[in-house]
Design a protein that fits this description.
Number of helices of chain A: 13
Shape of chain A: globular
Helix content of chain A: 25-40%
CATH architecture of chain B: Single Sheet
Number of strands of chain A: 12
Order of helices and strands of chain A: HHEEHEEHEEEEHEHHHHHHEHEEH
Structural class of chain A: alpha/beta
Helix content of chain B: 25-40%
CATH class of chain B: Mainly Beta
Radius of gyration of chain A: 22 Å
Number of strands of chain B: 4
Structural class of chain B: alpha+beta
Oligomer: heterodimer
Largest sheet of chain B: 4 strands, antiparallel
Largest sheet of chain A: 7 strands, mixed
Number of domains of chain A: 2
Strand content of chain A: 15-25%
Strand order of the largest sheet of chain A: 3-2-1-4-5-12-11
Strand content of chain B: 15-25%
Chain lengths: 366, 125
């Protein structure tokens, strides 16, 4: 078994977003998703009747009444919970955009390409976007920056922790006191795990990179290192990209999501370990509920219990893959696509932002 | 999925597909909405539309008789009533359940709950 960039994206991007989407369904949704003013402004600047593609639209935050927004994402869970007026949704992949050539007026590419594992795949996304844009059409690109005002990433290819207890439930953040005198952002950056995304032939370097960082984390950051599934009773993760040829390393790798969710039994034992009271209550509910109520009601109760339990578990951490961009890297990547021209570059709240324009390739190559 | 979306979609990303346009469309269920008509917006949209594909979409919901079978020379010379027929096809008809089909490989992309699934991995299963 070896690891490819697609495997990293599958495990640490696609499946984890599907997982997270199930915790953000309507009844648990934090008040409203964060709208970025610059993105809103870009959408509002488009002329009446424009067709705008939102690549990796997630919760479909950017709708428009005077334009026509088509949002697509690979995550069906987030799309089906995001249906609303003034936006059309589609399941599709940013590296294979199902749109005809030179047909759309503008593209949003917000927080997408930092989830792709190699330079060639990131460029492929930009090439696909450019193919769909009409000449003169503009694309707004945001990607997370390596240069952070509140911390320092150890590398550019990283697994970034996302802690369940920092999720709002019913619009409120659970009250969890941190013993570390740091901001959330600093903790997240400090706890990120560098990875080597490499060709299959040198896959072992990836494992050893993760392994060494996990080991050093264990020494430096006892709070976060507890998350590594090796020490707890989590079920071994069949889908971890380490494969069976390195069982020792498989124990050390942080899996993208905690592994006690899939079955009822492992769920209850998992919860019991962290909250015996809640575990007992859940176990006592389970049988009578299934006997007395419809399946639907039982599922609702289970879902709410799981969400409540998950949020109280400080031990639960999800990991997402990011490639963070160094200064100039994003505009260089845009420039490497023949049909795109950088219009402006800026740095905003820890992200690099580039506005690119589709140019006629006939003109630059007479 | 509103019918105007069909006009922009292509299966070109599939292996061995050269054009992948227009996609064939079968509609099992659709809703008719009442989206506000705007003359300018409709003309702008029609200027982007490929007429041949628009006829395919209109035929899929048995409403091809609402619009001319030949592309009008100038959209901005059409009356409001004529444009409203286009507006109805493009914006009011919302496909809930159906299929988009690649014209070359006949790969089927299902539309469920109004959301077309154009993922390559799913299509290749």
């Amino acid at each position: 078994m070896s690891i490819s960039s697609e495997n990293v994206e599958q495990e640490y991007v696609h499946s984890i977003y599907s997982r997270l989407a199930t915790y953000q369904q309507k009844d648990h949704k934090p008040s409203s998703p964060r709208i970025w003013p610059r993105v809103r402004q870009f959408v509002d600047q488009q002329s009446i009747g424009s067709v705008i593609l939102d690549v990796g639209c997630g919760e479909a935050k950017y709708t428009s009444q005077k334009c026509h927004v088509i949002g697509f994402d690979t995550c069906s869970e987030v799309l089906s919970s995001s249906k609303k007026e003034n936006i059309e949704l589609c399941l599709a992949d940013a590296v294979n955009i199902p749109i005809r050539d030179a047909s759309v007026d503008a593209i949003l590419n917000v927080s997408v390409i930092h989830h792709l594992a190699t330079t060639s795949r990131r460029r492929q996304v930009l090439q696909e976007c450019s193919r769909c844009l009409r000449v003169g059409g503009k694309m707004l690109i945001y990607a997370w920056a390596f240069e952070q005002p509140n911390g320092k990433f150890a590398a550019q290819d990283i697994l970034v922790p996302w802690n369940m207890h920092e999720t709002a439930i019913g619009g409120r953040l659970p009250k969890v006191k941190f013993h570390l005198n740091t901001t959330k952002e600093q903790r997240i950056i400090a706890a990120s795990i560098p990875v080597n995304i490499s060709d299959k032939s040198i896959a072992q370097r990836w494992f050893s990179g993760v392994l060494s960082k996990v080991t050093s984390l264990t020494d430096q950051l006892p709070y976060f290192s507890k998350r590594c599934p090796s020490s707890s009773g989590y079920k071994s993760n069949q889908s971890t990209p380490t494969g069976s040829d390195s069982p020792l390393m498989a124990q050390k790798l942080p899996s993208a999501a905690p592994q006690f969710l899939p079955t009822t039994n492992s769920l209850i034992s998992g919860i019991k370990r962290w909250s015996p009271m809640l575990g007992r209550r859940l176990a006592s509910l389970l049988v009578p509920v299934e006997e007395q109520f419809s399946e639907e009601l039982a599922q609702t109760i289970m879902r709410e219990s799981i969400t409540e339990a998950m949020a109280t578990l400080r031990e639960v951490t999800f990991y997402r893959f990011y490639h963070v961009f160094k200064e100039g890297e994003l505009s260089d990547l845009v420039d490497s696509v023949d049909s795109l021209k950088v219009v402006s570059t800026s740095f905003e709240h820890g992200n690099w932002c580039v506005i690119a324009e589709k140019i006629s390739t006939n003109l630059i190559r007479p | 999925m509103k019918l105007f979306v069909h006009n922009f979609m292509s299966s070109r990303f599939l292996k061995n597909v050269t054009v992948g346009y227009p996609l064939e469309l079968t509609v099992k269920q659709f809703e008719e909405k009442d989206i506000e008509f705007d003359r300018e917006n409709t003309i702008v949209m029609l200027d982007k539309v490929q007429y041949e594909a628009l006829l395919v979409a209109a035929a899929a919901v048995n409403q091809a008789d609402r619009i001319p079978s030949e592309q009008p020379a100038k959209y901005d010379e059409l009356s409001d009533d004529q444009l409203k027929q286009f507006h109805h096809i493009l914006m009011n008809i919302d496909v809930v359940d159906g299929e988009l089909i690649c014209p070359e490989t006949k790969t089927v992309f299902p539309i469920r709950d109004g959301i077309p699934n154009m993922l390559k991995v799913d299509a290749e299963k």
